[in-house]
Amino acid sequence: MLVPAILYKEQIEKEFRKLYYTEDMLYYTGCLAQWYPNIKDIPSDGDFDYAIVNNVGKLIGYLSYKADYYCSKVYNFGLVSFDRGNPIIGNDLYKKLEELVPRFHRIEWRMVGGNPVEKHYDKFCKLHNGKKHILKDSIRDTNGDYHDGIIYEIVKGCGVE
Predict the structure, then answer these.
(1) By the 8 A CB rule, do 82 and 59 touch?
(2) Which residue, of 35, 48, 152, 159, has the fewest CB within 10 Å?
């Protein structure tokens, strides 16, 4: 279930700190920076931060995105699982995306290639006639290995070319 992140702010920050120097942090930030979200007491217009909790209120993930109402687009998605493999996280993300797609002209998000969620993003993008753009070897990890940068876009009224 998605609830306002401010209700779990300290827990979210603690869980992010546990991810410092891990591959999960690379997948979240898209770079080698160590980071945790700046969850505001009163969010700005168009900023959305959610804690993902299970049916007993335990924090299992975090979702954020931005909405630009003037351009009618949603972008800058961030998703992290603190309970790897928990299907609630994917279900909540899917429901939120399904809510956003008809409301906005454009939905876009990025990810680091190799992220286990890639196949799910591919399916969702295809379902909504979106496009997947691959930036070959655009991200380098601490081991010196390269990863593709991937950009997904769903634009209302545009089909796959």
Answers:
(1) yes
(2) 159
Q: What is the CA radius of gyration of the chain?
A: 16
79 Cβ contact list (under 8 Å, min separation 6)? 28, 61, 62, 63, 64, 89, 93, 117
- Tens-digit pLDDT profile for residues 32-83: 889 999 999 999 999 999 999 999 999 999 999 999 999 999 999 999 999 9
With tokens 């920076």, the residue in question is 33
CA distance 48 to 64: 5
- The conformation of residue 83, written as its DSSP 8-state character, comes to S
- Residue with the two structure tokens 């920050």: 13
- Model confidence pLDDT, tens digit, residues 14-40: 999 999 999 889 999 988 889 999 999
Angle at 52 between CA 15 and CA 82, to 5 degrees: 35
